[in-house]
Write a structure and sequence with these properties.
The chain has about 280 residues and is mostly helical. Helices cover about 70% and strands about 0% of the residues. It is elongated and about 80 Å long.
Length: about 280
């Protein structure tokens, strides 16, 4: 008996949930869309976008997709949802929406734009705390930067003729420079705390993985310092020769290093003059 009662209650609960979804499935503020066709609802979404009401625009686009799932406006709305989340901004939702579009429409004429949106969403991602303290992009967790780079790389690799490819390549260059600078930021942190081996490994990573970036010079400088602190004179001298060969006018060789960095390079004062 108890089992039958439980099953009956479960059945009633399911009916309540289903009926509730039917009642509350669409926002009350968009009740005026009942009876509208897909184009009219989609146009309303575009109008909301123009007025920067991204949340409302997303709701319109979602209604198009739910009511008219097989039409061209549903497909366009899926892509527009990704763009609306990007503008909102909601990077995680933008990426998820773009990935969904790519999965559903891998051969769509505008699928390159979905890849581009993925890159843009994570390219601009920045936390609230970071905004308050005006933290530099190179000081942050590089995960979002790597994700952005990979999305742009997918775009350029798959669609080299895309109209978004040129901008993607420029952003990739910017990201690579900042990823290299991020590694140096960590290397400086290790140097200040006496973790010389860890600092050396970071610098070697920059030299090997980011050979064309402006960070090469300072990576060599920190590496020389780390080797000196570790007592590895042979490695130190080898790295110094590389520095002199590739950066003969280096400010660190001539003693013209910026003052903001010289505070932790003090042990180098006069060092190069004797070499």
């Amino acid at each position: 008996m108890n089992r039958r009662v439980s099953l009956a209650l479960l059945y009633l609960l399911c009916l309540f949930v289903i009926s509730g979804c039917a009642i509350f499935g669409e926002p009350s503020e968009l009740d005026e869309t009942k009876g509208w066709g897909p184009q009219k609802i989609h146009d309303a979404g575009e109008d909301a976008m123009r007025h920067r009401d991204y949340e409302k625009a997303i709701k319109y686009y979602q209604i198009v997709e739910v009511r008219f799932p097989h039409g061209k406006y549903a497909t366009q709305s899926q892509l527009d949802i990704a763009y609306a989340y990007y503008k909102k901004p909601d990077p995680a939702s933008a990426v998820a929406a773009a990935e969904r579009f790519i999965k559903l429409h891998p051969h769509h004429p505008n699928v390159d734009y979905a890849y581009y949106l993925k890159g843009l969403a994570t390219f601009n991602e920045r936390g609230v705390v970071e905004k308050l303290v005006d933290q530099e992009i190179s000081d942050r967790d590089p995960k979002a930067q790597r994700e952005s780079f990979n999305s742009f790389k997918d775009l350029v690799t798959r669609f080299p003729e895309s109209k978004y490819a040129k901008d993607a390549i420029q952003r990739m260059g910017y990201l690579v420079n900042n990823l290299a600078e991020n590694e140096l930021h960590v290397a400086r942190y290790y140097m200040k705390r006496g973790a010389f081996l860890a600092a050396a490994n970071r610098c070697k990573y920059v030299i090997e993985k980011y050979p064309e970036t402006p960070s090469q010079e300072e990576a060599l400088i920190i590496l020389i310092s780390a080797y000196e602190s570790l007592g590895l004179e042979d490695y130190q001298q080898d790295t110094l020769r590389v520095l002199k060969a590739n950066f003969p006018k280096s400010r660190f060789l001539t003693g013209e290093a910026p003052q903001d960095k010289k505070s932790w390079w003090k042990f180098w004062d006069g060092w190069f003059a004797n070499k």
